[in-house]
Write a structure and sequence with these properties.
Layout: H1 13-26, H2 34-47, E1 54-60, E2 66-74, E3 81-86, H3 93-96, H4 99-104, E4 110-113, H5 126-132, E5 137-144, E6 150-157, H6 165-199, H7 201-208, E7 217-230, H8 232-238, H9 241-261, E8 265-270, E9 273-279, H10 288-314, E10 321-337, E11 342-347, H11 349-364, E12 368-370, H12 372-377, E13 382-388, E14 397-402
Helix pairs in contact: 1-6, 6-7, 9-10
EC number: 4.6.1.1
InterPro entries: A/G_cyclase (IPR001054), Adenylyl/Guanylyl_Cyclase_3/4 (IPR050697), Nucleotide_cyclase (IPR029787)
Domain Guanylate cyclase: 223-358
Amino acid sequence: MAPPAATAPAPSVDDAAREVVEWLLLEGRHAPGFEQMMDRFCRRLMASGVPLLRAVCALPLLHPQIRTIAFFWRRNAEQVEIATRAHGTETSDEYLTSPFATLIEDGADGLRYRLEQMEPPWPYPVFAELRAQGATDYVAMTVLFAGGRRNVLSFTTDRPGGFSTADLALVDAVLPALGAVLETLALRRLATTVLDTYVGHRTGARILSGDIRRGTGANVRAVLWYCDLRGFTSLADRLPREELIALLNGYFEIMGGAVESRGGEIMKFIGDAMLAIFPLEESDPTGAAACTKALDAAQEALTDMAARNAERAAWGQPTLRCGIALHMGEVMYGNIGSANRLDFTVIGPAVNLVSRIEGLCSRLERNVLTSAEVAEACASRLVSVGWHPVKGLNDPIEVYGLKEKTGTNEGTDE
């Protein structure tokens, strides 16, 4: 009679934790983003016997618009859901009555609630939703980053009886390694966010790729955009600081939004002026596509400016006027500056010329003026407004305006 087949012993908590930690440090940290890492990590836990229904990871961000980003993993969902919370939501009732507020704001290290043993009223409103989904147990814990920044991770199960002692021991054992990986991904995201915010997405990508040596760069053909706010000096003298900053932010939101929505990139803000580029693609050798995008952006910006002015006038506030200049030419795109302080920007005669063209907008009472190079690429939309001298050039240049007048400049600076 054959002996009974041997049954492989179940792996111990230590062995299971070791496998998850090794995966986190060798593979998990190379995940392209939080979503992928979160999905793979949760499935690793399930493979180790932890019965997950849902998991949530919430991370505070250093971002101009977003305070917190949360990643929701659900057992039967095809992908991880992402939710962001804007600045100010930290004072909302929804946040203050959540378990995460208890952990982040009140300093608790962890929470556990046996949902299947509880009845309303719930200590946190989210528990009613989880219980309706069949959840039996809820655990939340803090994940600390270097410097003490508190992040939160929660796990929910629908197994009768909830999480076992072994389940929680496994999660606790892998938490330090998970925190290290999350911090690595957070720092990567932070670097991208800061660069996108302060130098633009295209330039930020170049910097992250290692293009940071002073003097490095490339020649790029592009449509250059330069806009300037009229009457800003008198406004700055009269308006309180907070109102002036809000006015500038609203103006740049209109100009920058129109540029970026059509594939342009903001190079820099110079006081109340903005420099941007629309690089020519290989499939656009004449620049017609880039010029079209730039002109479309200019018209959108002026339309939005007119709407904003109508609102400001209705409230008795000063209206805004601006000039936008477009020129197509070659620029040097790269690192310029001192040994320890660099600016990744564009320089060259084309940049100087587009700023000089913008200076003609007020004198010619035009919202938009372009060079002959732009007019050649988009002749059907532009009309010559004559030859005019510009600072720095011996000979006058011919400039062009929109055939369809978009009126935001008519009127006074007030």
